Fold this sequence. Notes:
Layout: E1 8-13, H1 17-20, H2 26-42, E2 47-52, H3 54-57, H4 62-67, E3 72-76, H5 89-92, E4 96-102, H6 104-117, E5 121-130, H7 134-146, E6 150-152, H8 154-162, H9 170-177
Parallel strand pairs: 1-2, 1-4, 2-3, 4-5, 5-6
Helix pairs in contact: 6-7
GO molecular function: hydrolase activity
Pfam family, one: Isochorismatase
Keywords: Hydrolase
Amino acid sequence: MLIDAHKATLLVVDVQQRLIGAVTDPAGTLARIRWLLQVAGELDLPVVISEQYPQGLGPTVTELSAVAPAARVVEKRHFSCVAADCLPADVLAREQLIVCGMETHVCVLQTVLDLCALGKQVFVVDDACASRTAYSHATGIQRMRDAGAQIVSREMVAFECLHSSSHAKFRLISKTFLVVEQP
């Protein structure tokens, strides 16, 4: 199955001020998620950002919220966005969710497993997820794959949303975002 921009929402899970420094490669993680948010903005893909207990862990990292000013921000205390019942009904009504964020093996994993249990088509952006250790990240990705989630890269998201080089935004996306692959 391919990502369909008309059926998908981008869900960014818990990339918060007090958590980002604990993951492996915090600067790279932020750069990759920012890239994904910018592409989503160019393609008019709906965006939801979750925050785990923001009173204690702080808000979403400013450089991300700045590139997605129209994103809906939802708060939660459960690790899963689904268990927390914080996702708006219109988001849950969409067939596909593209998920990135942190931590891969906790909040991203539990959200993805719950979305799969709801019958959603879930695409986990491997290079836009992070954990405190590489092992935890890899284990979380494998478990989500085993549960039926599709594991994708940022470029897969961009090209599948574009669907064709005849898309009105193809030249803009390719010149702006695909010139040099970011790590």
